[in-house]
Design brief:
The chain is rod-shaped, with a radius of gyration of 20 Å. The protein has a four-stranded antiparallel beta sheet with strand order 1-2-5-6, with no helix packed on it. It has a two-stranded antiparallel sheet with strand order 3-4. The protein is α+β, with helices and mostly antiparallel strands. The chain binds zinc ion (ZN). Zinc ion (ZN) binds next to loops.
Length: 103
């Protein structure tokens, strides 16, 4: 079954799609958006472009340097989003493994 529905910005699968150790059962999982790792690579790409324009950025200490600091401060939440794992739709615990009947 490939049909899915949105739930609070995350995607929940309709079918049983993971094993939850806390429930000790095969459960429906809620998966994070799968493209956060790509967004993270794009973030580092933008940082590379900023490094190429560092003479311009360093010449403007009033706006561009604080803006760069603000941009760099997004790395922590972005790392957290990229590290999210599928969770159990029933109890909210981590359910990174596939269902037992598929293993
Ligand atoms: Zn569970």
């Amino acid at each position: 079954m490939t049909e899915r529905f949105e739930e609070g910005g995350r995607r929940a699968t309709v079918a049983v799609s993971g094993y939850c150790p806390r429930c000790d059962a095969d459960v429906r999982t809620v998966r994070p958006w799968p493209h956060w790792k790509r967004v993270r690579y794009g973030f580092f790409g933008v940082l590379g472009v900023a490094a190429m324009f560092s003479p311009v950025i360093l010449a403007d200490g009033c706006m561009l340097i604080p803006s760069l600091f603000l941009f760099i401060s997004a790395l922590g939440p972005l790392n957290g989003l990229a590290a999210q794992q599928p969770t159990c739709a029933r109890c909210g615990g981590m359910a990174p493994e596939p269902p037992r009947d598929l293993v």
